[in-house]
């Protein structure tokens, strides 16, 4: 089987995203033979994001995504994949462990029945993973990253947590009692890919498909902070689970996106980790061990004396007139941000493509640089006082990496302009930092 699959084919990535792969072409005997469907679909991600941007401009006169929010969402997606540089997917590793030691039956890998059974099993498990990620506070601490954008567009789909994968593997283990890892490895990717295109406001209604499938219309509700939207529509590919288990809601009032209490920052590490710190501080306000533990294992809205999930009576009222956080900053600075983001994206892609040939020390160093860059760019968007100094230090590291061949230009013919741009960036931020220090000194004097 799988004779029709073409490794590295962009068309395969497109069909994988829209569930158009047949069991015959996407069933494999060994895990090593399973294509990297998500990687194949990367050009499709870019193409659809650009298409959404163009269509939204033509339709509404405004872009579907802002530079600040879009870069932050893509940065979150980049950070979420960094652990894969040092280890295999937690979900697949744990799955193979259970399969090797505890499987009850061994369904045939080359059967269409196995393929469809796995499709349903993975989506069912995802429903409960997603639901408990909203109903258990320490799981929500990871998942809230995905809900932190106040916009709803295709870049929002990429805003993922770096820590959720360390708990999500538990929910897929029941499937490992019967389904070969190679078939699971296909469907865990298909389930993820499908959920990309439903993050858009441009598709309003898909008619009869709305009854069975998760669609942009259903998923918009899930991302809303309106009272009727909270804790609804958890489905991955199928919406039938929400209909069966009473968590379905129809889109009615205008959906206002984001967290109940917006964090109003684009600093990437803070977005990833702030809720863990919040839970710790909140637990310290309680005296009993029971209440301290409940802070982590009960719902985010829970308070002592309430039911497991608490209630949303204290949520800020949603009027429908809320405006997303979008700090004003100059066009030249936005261009600067985009160019430097493209440079770090190039390093990021090279890192994943060549990870088998790089030493662990080199991988660690380049990973730290990626995190430093994304953090510094977030500081610039937030217009923090320390942004200039941090960006100057980052530019020093960048010039060093360029000198020793760890940073390549986007196009070989742009090697000299890229080197000049990097050097000018360092000079600019050095002058900015020096000016800032002089200003502080004058105030002190």
Q: What does this protein structure show overall?
A:
This protein is 55% helix and 0% strand. The chain has 17 helices and no strands. It has helices spanning 10-17, 37-40, 42-60, 67-81, 90-102, 112-135, 137-147, 165-168, 181-197, 216-222, 240-245, 268-283, 289-297, 331-353, 360-382, 387-403, 415-444. Helix 4 packs antiparallel against helix 15 (360-382), helix 6 packs across helix 7 and helix 14 runs antiparallel to helix 15. Residues 117-247 form the Fatty acid hydroxylase domain.
Number of strands: 0
Major beta sheet, specifics?
none
What is the C-alpha radius of gyration, as a whole number of Å? 23 Å
Q: What would the average pLDDT be, to the nearest integer?
A: 92
Please provide the ordered H/E string of secondary-structure elements: HHHHHHHHHHHHHHHHH
Question: What is the approximate shape?
Answer: globular
Q: How many H/I helical runs? A: 17
What structural category arises from helix and sheet content?
mainly alpha
DSSP strand content: under 5%
Number of domains as seen in the coordinates = 2
Helical proportion?
A: 55-70%
How far the N terminus sits from the C terminus, by CA atoms, comes to: 78 Å
**Low-pLDDT segments:** 3-7
Write the layout of secondary structure elements.
Layout (H helix, E strand, L loop, with lengths): L9 H8 L19 H4 L1 H19 L6 H15 L8 H13 L9 H24 L1 H11 L17 H4 L12 H17 L18 H7 L17 H6 L22 H16 L5 H9 L33 H23 L6 H23 L4 H17 L11 H30 L1
Catalytic activity: 1-O-(1,2-saturated-alkyl)-sn-glycerol + (6R)-L-erythro-5,6,7,8-tetrahydrobiopterin + O2 = a 1-(1-hydroxyalkyl)-sn-glycerol + (6R)-L-erythro-6,7-dihydrobiopterin + H2O
GO cellular component, one term: endoplasmic reticulum membrane
GO biological process, one term: lipid biosynthetic process
